[in-house]
């Protein structure tokens, strides 16, 4: 099969996008010169704290928000200068789901799903068949006649997903769609999104403030802060080798490392450490294991390791390990050990929170 031309490989291309709001005379740069390219069939996560500009940026994709600057290309077509009818057509190719579902209370589940089809020239029978087919796809065929108030949060989000798929979109934008759900329901909704990506080839753009969500289903991720993208790349790469402090913060929160560091540094008497002791954090990928590191320290270098926290994660099929430990031993020998581990892709950091005793990390 010949390769697709470059332009059509991308479902979404946002070029030099800025969105500036004017609030009582003050300019707010909600999105500030952002470039994003999202490949067809990708699940692309955008993570950032509240106010980072994530929602504003994704609303630009279907021009619910017109950018102050920049160009928006969807499926190879620049959409800003389209006439109204063309823009309506282009918008149908982009479905959206939200944190609060936005279902119509007065309509049944079926009524909600068939709503976007009312404006299409299809028979009532076909419309109902299509809505029922979509309900089956999201596992809610038994609930066609139920009203939204009788549904759980997860079921409501499934209805919203079915409704978003009614006009056969190629892109689905999920704006914090799991933020109001408990962890188990979140998992089932993310599994459904993954299935839709696999089965329908749907391109998914997913906004969240939780790295756990990104880790569960995204292939690529962009980290947003104050209207800018500060880091981006494949999830496995960003997770294992975060560059920006904010990215590191998201990663350490989602792996429970942040909690563990706070708990340990607030309960352990670091001031009372001997000169040959350090509190250290290790992060390792792939072949290195916690056991391997500990035995290398203790057998090869005769340095003692007292593990206070350890966790292992699977990201894109790779093992990623995290360990916090008190290390006791001769400083020179200790530095040799750290140098060797570094050569093997293990990252080390001192957590003492004060001047170290000369350990080179
Ligand atoms: N229509 C608007 N008018 C004025 N300011 C706005 C408007 N929409 C968003 N903003 C401001 O733009 C900034 C970015 O908001 P945005 O909603 O895009 O952030 P976010 O990262 O999605 O955060 P959240 O998850 O809280 O929505 C915020 O300071 C917000 O107050």
Automatic annotation (TrEMBL):
<dbReference type="Pfam" id="PF09383">
    <property type="entry name" value="NIL"/>
</dbReference>
<dbReference type="InterPro" id="IPR027417">
    <property type="entry name" value="P-loop_NTPase"/>
</dbReference>
<dbReference type="InterPro" id="IPR018449">
    <property type="entry name" value="NIL_domain"/>
</dbReference>
<dbReference type="Pfam" id="PF00005">
    <property type="entry name" value="ABC_tran"/>
</dbReference>
<keyword id="KW-0029">Amino-acid transport</keyword>
<feature type="domain" description="ABC transporter">
    <location>
        <begin position="12"/>
        <end position="251"/>
    </location>
</feature>
<dbReference type="InterPro" id="IPR041701">
    <property type="entry name" value="MetN_ABC"/>
</dbReference>
<dbReference type="InterPro" id="IPR050086">
    <property type="entry name" value="MetN_ABC_transporter-like"/>
</dbReference>
<dbReference type="GO" id="GO:0005524">
    <property type="term" value="F:ATP binding"/>
</dbReference>
<dbReference type="GO" id="GO:0016887">
    <property type="term" value="F:ATP hydrolysis activity"/>
</dbReference>
<keyword id="KW-1003">Cell membrane</keyword>
<keyword id="KW-0472">Membrane</keyword>
<keyword id="KW-0813">Transport</keyword>
<dbReference type="InterPro" id="IPR017871">
    <property type="entry name" value="ABC_transporter-like_CS"/>
</dbReference>
<dbReference type="InterPro" id="IPR045865">
    <property type="entry name" value="ACT-like_dom_sf"/>
</dbReference>
<dbReference type="InterPro" id="IPR003439">
    <property type="entry name" value="ABC_transporter-like_ATP-bd"/>
</dbReference>
<dbReference type="GO" id="GO:0006865">
    <property type="term" value="P:amino acid transport"/>
</dbReference>
<protein>
    <submittedName>
        <fullName>Abc superfamily atp binding cassette transporter, binding protein</fullName>
    </submittedName>
</protein>
<dbReference type="InterPro" id="IPR003593">
    <property type="entry name" value="AAA+_ATPase"/>
</dbReference>
<keyword id="KW-0547">Nucleotide-binding</keyword>
<keyword id="KW-0067">ATP-binding</keyword>
<keyword id="KW-1278">Translocase</keyword>
């Amino acid at each position: 099969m010949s390769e697709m031309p470059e332009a059509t490989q991308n479902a979404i291309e946002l070029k030099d996008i800025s969105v500036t709001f004017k609030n009582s005379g003050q300019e707010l740069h909600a999105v500030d010169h952002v470039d994003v390219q999202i490949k067809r069939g990708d699940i692309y996560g955008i993570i950032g704290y509240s106010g980072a500009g994530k929602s504003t940026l994704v609303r630009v994709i279907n021009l619910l928000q017109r950018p102050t600057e920049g160009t928006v290309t969807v499926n190879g077509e620049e959409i800003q200068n389209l006439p109204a009818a063309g823009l309506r057509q282009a918008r149908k190719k982009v479905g959206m789901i939200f944190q609060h579902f936005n279902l119509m209370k007065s309509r049944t589940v079926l009524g909600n799903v068939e709503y976007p089809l009312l404006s299409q020239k299809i028979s009532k029978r076909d419309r109902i068949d299509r809505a029922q087919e979509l309900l089956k796809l999201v596992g809610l065929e038994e609930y066609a006649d139920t009203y939204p108030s009788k549904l759980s949060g997860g079921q409501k989000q499934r209805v919203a997903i079915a409704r978003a798929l009614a006009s056969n979109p190629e892109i689905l934008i999920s704006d914090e769609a799991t933020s109001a759900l408990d962890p188990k329901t979140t998992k089932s909704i993310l599994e459904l999104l993954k299935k839709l990506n696999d089965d329908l080839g749907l391109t998914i753009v997913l906004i969240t403030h939780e790295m756990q969500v990104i880790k569960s289903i995204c292939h690529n991720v962009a980290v947003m802060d104050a209207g800018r993208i500060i880091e981006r790349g494949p999830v496995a790469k960003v997770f294992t080798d975060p560059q920006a402090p904010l990215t590191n913060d998201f990663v350490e929160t989602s792996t429970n490392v942040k909690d563990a560091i706070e708990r340990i540094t607030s309960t352990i008497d670091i001031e009372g450490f001997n000169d040959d002791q350090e509190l250290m954090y290790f992060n390792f990928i792939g072949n290195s294991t916690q056991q391997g590191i500990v035995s290398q320290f203790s057998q090869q270098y005769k340095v003692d390791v007292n593990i206070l926290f350890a966790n292992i994660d699977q990201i894109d099929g790779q093992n990623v390990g995290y360990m916090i430990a008190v290390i006791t031993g001769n400083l020179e020998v200790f530095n040799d050990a750290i140098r060797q581990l570094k050569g093997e892709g293990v990252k080390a950091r001192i957590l003492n929170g004060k001047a170290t005793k000369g350990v080179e990390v």
